[in-house]
Write a structure and sequence with these properties.
The structure is a single chain. By secondary structure, the chain is α+β, with helices and mostly antiparallel strands. Helices cover about 15% and strands about 40% of the residues. The chain contains four helices and six strands. The protein has a six-stranded mixed β-sheet. The protein starts with a helix and ends with a helix.
């Protein structure tokens, strides 16, 4: 109990910090997040992926074609750190799962000692006279299990936002990150997208679809008065964590 007290106190302090933030914006809309360099975030980490061995491009003397160039003219698509790229998010997922498991088990065991070198005659002297040596132990068990589960999910998100190239990997792939905030009345809607894109998957209009992003991380949520109402009370969240039943 003494060990649980510091953890409970720390949890209450963290919850108090969240409540202090909510109290600080009573009567006004949520503030926008300042526009800043994503790599300056303490939680940002550079992406490390398996890379092929570097190869030197052969010299091409007296040629108008430059190795690695996709066109004779300058390519206007994102190609280096700091360039902007438009990310198209179009998610239409539907899933329906239904499972049921049934199991029944029954067992009966009996064990006795009708004859054992004459030692069975000594059983009445050790145990009560009503004990039958031929039926010393008898057990039976029955178990039944019935489980049913179902999942039905429908998601549809169609958005487009501009992202920025934050890192260029040695094999030419690029790490892209985009964030968008929209405030309507007192509710802030947030969209965050990040992943790894190949230069070949970037369209001529400098757009890339979200399903072309490797290691894609897409988050769509919000904060504000409506989001606060949809959250359970702190006391209920605390009880859900601590109560074992």
């Amino acid at each position: 109990m003494k060990r649980a007290a510091p953890a409970l106190l720390a949890l209450l302090l963290l919850a108090g910090c969240g409540q202090a933030e909510r109290l600080s914006r009573v009567g006004r809309a949520p503030d926008f997040t300042p526009v800043s360099d994503p790599t300056a975030d303490p939680r940002w980490r550079p992406v490390s992926m398996p890379m092929p061995a570097p190869q030197e491009a052969p010299a091409m003397a007296n040629s108008l074609w430059r190795p690695g160039s996709r066109t004779f003219l300058r390519d206007q698509r994102a190609a280096q750190v700091g360039d902007l790229i438009t990310i198209l998010v179009s998610i239409q997922d539907q899933a329906q799962l239904q499972n049921r498991t049934q199991a029944t088990r029954g067992g009966t065991q009996e064990m006795g000692m009708p004859a054992l070198l004459g030692l069975e005659n000594a059983v009445p002297r050790v145990l009560p006279n009503t004990v039958d040596p031929a039926r010393l132990i008898g057990t039976n068990s029955t178990g039944t299990a019935d489980g049913t589960g179902s999942v039905r999910r429908t998601e549809q998100i169609t958005l487009r936002l501009a992202g920025v190239i934050t890192q260029s990997l040695p094999n030419g792939n690029m790490v892209v990150m985009g964030r968008q905030e929209v405030r309507v009345n007192n509710e802030m809607r947030e969209l965050t997208v990040q992943g790894i894109v190949r230069p070949q998957d970037i369209g001529s209009d400098n757009t890339v679809r979200h399903d072309r992003l490797a290691e894609a991380r897409i988050a769509y949520g919000g904060r504000g008065s409506l989001s606060d109402i949809q959250q359970p009370r702190l006391g209920q969240q605390l009880l859900d964590i601590l109560l074992p039943f």
